[in-house]
Amino acid sequence: MTHVLQNVVFPLDRDPDLLPLYADPETWSVIDEEPVRVSSRAQLGNILDRRRVRIVSGRRVSFGTYFNAFPASYWQHWTSVREVTLTVRTSGPATILVYRSNGSGIRQRIDTREVTGDATTSIPLALTEYSDGGWVWFDIVADEKNATLEGAEWTTEQDPARHGKASLGITTYNKPDYCVDTLRALSDATDLLEVVDRVFLIDQGTQLVAEQDGFDEVAASLGATLQVIRQPNLGGSGGFARAMHETLQRPDSDFVQLLDDDVLIEPESLRRSVVFGRYATTPVLVGGHMFDLLDRPRLHGWAEVVDEHPFMWRNLYQERMPHDFGVANLRQSPLLHMRMDADYNGWWMCLIPLDAIRKVGLSLPAFIKWDDAEFCLRAGEAGFATVSLPGVALWHVSWVNKDDTIDWQAYFHARNRIVAALLHSNAPHGGRLLTHSRRVDLKHLMMMQYYPVALRAQALRDVLAGPAHMRANLATAMPAARALAAGYPETVVHRDPSRVLHSRRGRQVYKHTKQHEYDSPTGMRLRWFTLRTLVTHWMRRPDPANVAQPEVEFGKNDAHWWRVPAFDSALVSSADGSGKNVYTRDRAKYRRMLIETVRLHRRLKRQWPRLQAEYRKALPDLVSEASWTQIFKEDA
């Protein structure tokens, strides 16, 4: 029996920005070691439908693209498949050229076929030389007449290791429009629905998806496949835990596919993740990459890891991300040909085998932040690796225009990172985690950002109280964090169009070439700057004139922690550009919070071994299905 591993597909949307991810009819050159587009021949008019594309006479189109090249290295490493067949259906005279790459991105041609008329070309390909990396792809060159790619797929005759379907779990809070669009895309993808058992839509909001325009039609189309579940807002962890819980009751499901709400999906990616999960030699988590919904060729996440000693998440090869496929295509990006192994994958899109959930439990009751990383670390320790699979991705609202480290989410950033470290760090006292955490507080204090410091202090107090607090405040921690903002005027975003805010000294403008690096103090200069600033803020009262009116104004990208502290007050643009925040130095708050953060971090370091033992002992109960079932009943 022939099994389709990957279909060659083209964009659902007629968006020119998407084309480089699917087909590459452009000519590239390399100037000063950088890829440069020298002539553009990309025309959406040549995309005929979801599976068909026209190749204009005398032109070449490459399908060595993110969504249509075959990630051979990942299939060789994680599955027992050792031969795939590329089948290409064409009409018109053309030449099919098949290429491969290695882990260094070096291209090699491995086959050439000339075709005429209506032709079906099958090319067997061995998966035996891709240990460190590499893709396989094909180009089509049209001869004296136009040619058409009528369809193509990568297949195998080998049976998968498991045959179960996946249930999809979509968690949403007041994103009904996005959810209806996602459901519509699912209902139109018949080949995807063949591997889907049930779609669980966990609606935790007040703007209900069921009341959104278009929902009734798409619900009727999906029929019994769709199940909408309403529950109070338990955050992403509570919504995804509910999807895990419901999927465990489905005898036909071997996987649960978690999806965020504010996304645009590529249905073929969802199908690929399930197929890869079926073929994996041992059960693995299959993660999807994240493209920017508002800048669609830009890839933000490839393989994500957690550094042990600071215990902080990051992209592998952080300095090379994000990657813009509108600037450099796959074939011109050697790094993207390496096989990259991940520690975890964000839950914007992640396929989890039920075997893993049965063994390690459900999500940590963390509300948001670190629940995905913690689960993947926990699963990894139990033998379930995470594979962030190329060619599997969606578009998600990125964090470019956000700064959730200074809003109510600062509580969850701090608490959940420390809890995850208590559960999984092998470094004594969490390594550099507590030092880094204390430095974060000092930076906020120097920048007159007192609200996140207050939230982070509450986070440390809760961690010190013991693991029982995580379940106890699951539904209340977020409202409490947001309510706390009322006591901190700097949280107000001033947007009143009838009143223009001005500063006394005007806007501080800094010209630079390397953002975040150009004049940041380091070494002894950093230590002297920090000591001098901390003492100055402790000793000196702000000028009353600067309290009455902001002293200076900063753009968001110029308001760095080594600049703002030089002033008594500052007018700073909000992250999304919708207004401005006013930061004003408050000596009394500063003194109280500085003493508290030092005291709390010392206490946490002193009690780390005891807390680590307590949290690790409590973990099986916190993530158990029984515990979550009780939470769902209590909050029903």
Labels describing this entry:
five-stranded antiparallel beta sheet; single chain; transferase; Spore Coat Polysaccharide Biosynthesis Protein SpsA, Chain A; 636 residues; alpha+beta; GlfT2_C; 17 helices; GlfT2_N; globular; ten-stranded mixed beta sheet; Glycosyltransferase; 3 domains; Nucleotide-diphossugar_trans
Furnish the topology, listing elements before pairings.
Layout: E1 3-7, E2 27-31, E3 34-39, E4 53-55, E5 60-62, H1 72-78, E6 83-91, E7 94-101, E8 107-115, E9 118-126, E10 136-142, E11 147-156, E12 165-172, H2 176-188, H3 190-193, E13 196-203, H4 215-222, E14 226-230, H5 235-248, E15 253-259, E16 263-265, H6 267-279, E17 285-292, E18 295-301, E19 304-307, E20 312-315, E21 323-324, E22 349-353, H7 354-360, H8 371-381, E23 386-396, H9 410-424, H10 433-446, H11 450-465, H12 468-472, H13 477-484, E24 507-508, H14 523-539, H15 544-548, E25 552-554, E26 569-573, E27 580-584, H16 587-622, H17 625-634
Parallel strand pairs: 12-13, 12-15, 13-14, 17-23, 24-25, 25-26
Antiparallel strand pairs: 1-11, 2-3, 4-11, 5-10, 6-9, 6-11, 7-8, 7-10, 15-22, 16-23, 17-18, 17-22, 18-21, 19-20, 26-27
Helix pairs in contact: 2-4, 5-17, 8-9, 9-11, 10-16, 11-16
